[in-house]
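Possible regression after last week's pipeline update?

I re-ran a chain I had predicted before the update to compare outputs. Posting the input and the new output here so someone can diff against the archived version. Not blocking, just want to make sure nothing changed silently.
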Amino acid sequence: MYLKKTSGPRSVTTANGSILSLDNLPPVGTLRWVASRKATVVRAVLYGLISQDKALELYNLSIDEFQSWVQALHDHGETALKTTQSQKYRQPKSEL
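New output (post-update):
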């Protein structure tokens, strides 16, 4: 078996002690983004497994979309990444 050379680490250890590897990332071209896949990509970037630019390129994400995932995960946990919960966790717009 041959391993493809990568410029970064093959795996990282997260704060809770779990190991996140390149094999854990969602498939390239993923169209159905469930909360666990979003969280995996965010954690991969935060722990240095892949760069943010690489994540945006691989998964065809906008910077705004990715940053909203990061913020939701940071503020409210993985539950906030569920599409059905997005309204519940959004900041209310101030009325002018």
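Follow-up from reviewer: compared with the archived run. Residues 12-20+29-83 form a domain with the Arc Repressor Mutant, subunit A fold (CATH 1.10.10.10). Marking as no regression found.
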